[in-house]
């Protein structure tokens, strides 16, 4: 066992020493900000740059929300592509793989293949009526999975044919790097869009909770941080972690109350084939209808209330906010470990004071998976609207068979 530990230790050291130094990212801070903050210390200069750019990004995010769900989908796709580019670029730099035959093209080809598969699944699931009216799309949807597999298989064969002697290990490094990157970025962004179709509130509350936790933890850590939280991120402190938790839960509870009042945020996003537009109009479900709740006896003495009126979704927001503040940061810790492993400070220098896009969305991907699992486990029930869309795709004789079966079933139960 001792010999094995020594060999593994030597192997680990050898691998670390083989990793070349990656050129540090350039400072992309606008000159006007540099001049305005030139008199401040580096610590406060970074604080102001981060704060100004954070407000700018939040403002842009609210503008996109106003423009509608389709623009939000384009935003998710854009972020996915940029995150993929940042991670793949690190692989190119670390392993000096710029000169590998076909590999740069294959990385982007695999991204297109995986996106074609996932977005095709979304089209088939949510735009069935639209597809039914266009014969050219019916073929693509009917054989969508076969076409997706054929496209991927083409890229796989090209990769095998491009293998070069003395570079086999490097090429397989990059092949694995590409596929793990696809798993992290494309599949998670697909889940984000799935959450959005359930209602914009399932998209906004989780994402805003992660943003709130990130900002609150940074502020509490900046002003009150004394106790280191984890070695992977030396700047993270327990004070920031705890302050971020309570701030996020309160924010999620209040923000949910505001959003739950509007159909625009609570109704599932559906495509209207007659107007060729996404619509968010419905009769809000019980989750978004005000109810009266009894206050626990311990809190009655403190608050002086016996009952309280609130939306049921606000209770779910506590679960979402708790995950965003307690488990969500581990996505950031994972990213910190990744950056330390490859001797880089940030994924890129896209956003001054923040690093790359991936530096800001490392926790969001973990959050997206949790929300999707949470909805399917505790929220989502049978959807008559989606079932009806699927029935309308069937041939007339198949629809008649379903009708007869359903009729006999209802007669047998005494409903008809």
TrEMBL record:
Report the EC code(s) recorded for this entry.
2.7.7.41
Give the record's GO CC terms. Answer: endoplasmic reticulum membrane
State where the protein is found: Membrane
Database matches in Pfam families? CTP_transf_1
GO terms for biological process, alphabetical: CDP-diacylglycerol biosynthetic process
Question: What Gene Ontology molecular-function terms does this entry list?
Answer: phosphatidate cytidylyltransferase activity
Return the broad EC class.
Answer: transferase
Residue ranges annotated as transmembrane are 47-79, 100-119, 139-161, 173-193, 199-225, 237-260, 313-335
Q: How does it sit in the membrane?
A: Multi-pass membrane protein
State the reactions this protein catalyses.
a 1,2-diacyl-sn-glycero-3-phosphate + CTP + H(+) = a CDP-1,2-diacyl-sn-glycerol + diphosphate; 1-octadecanoyl-2-(4Z,7Z,10Z,13Z,16Z,19Z-docosahexaenoyl)-sn-glycero-3-phosphate + CTP + H(+) = 1-octadecanoyl-2-(4Z,7Z,10Z,13Z,16Z,19Z-docosahexaenoyl)-sn-glycero-3-cytidine-5'-diphosphate + diphosphate; 1-hexadecanoyl-2-(5Z,8Z,11Z,14Z-eicosatetraenoyl)-sn-glycero-3-phosphate + CTP + H(+) = 1-hexadecanoyl-2-(5Z,8Z,11Z,14Z-eicosatetraenoyl)-sn-glycero-3-cytidine-5'-diphosphate + diphosphate; 1,2-di-(9Z-octadecenoyl)-sn-glycero-3-phosphate + CTP + H(+) = 1,2-di-(9Z-octadecenoyl)-sn-glycero-3-cytidine-5'-diphosphate + diphosphate
State the UniProt keywords alphabetically. Answer: Lipid biosynthesis, Lipid metabolism, Membrane, Nucleotidyltransferase, Phospholipid biosynthesis, Phospholipid metabolism, Transferase, Transmembrane, Transmembrane helix
Protein's pathway: Lipid metabolism; Phospholipid metabolism; CDP-diacylglycerol biosynthesis; CDP-diacylglycerol from sn-glycerol 3-phosphate: step 3/3
**InterPro entries attached here?**
PC_trans, PC_Trfase_euk
In which family does this protein belong, per the annotation? Belongs to the CDS family.
Task: Write the protein's name.
Answer: Phosphatidate cytidylyltransferase
Gene from which the chain derives: Cds1
């Amino acid at each position: 066992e001792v010999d094995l530990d020594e060999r593994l230790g030597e192997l680990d050291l050898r691998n670390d020493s083989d990793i070349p130094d990656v050129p540090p990212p350039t400072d992309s801070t606008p000159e006007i900000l540099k001049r305005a903050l030139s008199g401040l210390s580096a610590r406060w200069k970074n604080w102001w740059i981060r704060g100004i750019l954070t407000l700018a990004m939040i403002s842009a995010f609210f503008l996109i929300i106003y423009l509608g769900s389709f623009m939000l989908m384009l935003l998710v796709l854009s972020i996915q592509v940029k995150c993929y580019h940042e991670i793949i670029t690190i692989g190119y730099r670390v392993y000096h793989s710029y000169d590998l035959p076909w590999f740069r093209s294959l990385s982007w080809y695999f991204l297109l293949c995986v996106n074609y598969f996932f977005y095709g699944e979304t089209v088939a699931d949510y735009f069935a009526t639209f597809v039914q009216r266009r014969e050219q799309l019916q073929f693509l949807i009917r054989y969508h999975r076969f076409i997706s597999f054929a496209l991927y298989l083409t890229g796989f064969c090209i990769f095998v044919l491009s293998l070069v002697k003395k570079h086999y290990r490097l090429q397989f490094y990059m092949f694995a790097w590409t596929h793990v990157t696809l798993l992290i970025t494309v599949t998670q962004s697909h889940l984000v869009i799935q959450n959005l179709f359930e209602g914009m509130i399932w998209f906004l509350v989780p994402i805003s909770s992660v943003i709130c936790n990130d900002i609150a933890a940074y502020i509490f850590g900046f002003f009150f941080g004394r106790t280191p939280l984890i070695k992977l991120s030396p700047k993270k402190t327990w004070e920031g972690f705890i302050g971020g938790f309570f701030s996020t839960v309160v924010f999620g509870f209040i923000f949910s109350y505001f959003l739950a009042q509007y159909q625009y945020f609570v109704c599932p996003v559906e495509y209207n084939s007659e107007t060729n537009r996404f619509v968010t109009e419905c009769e809000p479900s019980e989750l978004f209808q005000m109810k009266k709740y009894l206050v626990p006896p311990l809190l009655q003495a403190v608050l002086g209330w016996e009952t309280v009126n609130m939306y049921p979704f606000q209770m779910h927001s506590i679960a979402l906010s708790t995950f965003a503040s307690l488990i969500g940061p581990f996505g950031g810790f994972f990213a910190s470990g990744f950056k330390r492993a490859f001797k880089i400070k940030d994924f890129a220098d896209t956003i001054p004071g923040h690093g790359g896009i991936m530096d800001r969305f490392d926790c969001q991907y973990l959050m997206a998976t949790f929300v999707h699992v949470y909805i399917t486990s505790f929220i989502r029930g049978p959807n008559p609207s989606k079932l009806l869309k699927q029935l309308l795709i069937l041939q007339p004789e198949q629809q008649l068979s379903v009708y007869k079966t359903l009729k006999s079933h209802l007669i047998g139960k005494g409903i008809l």
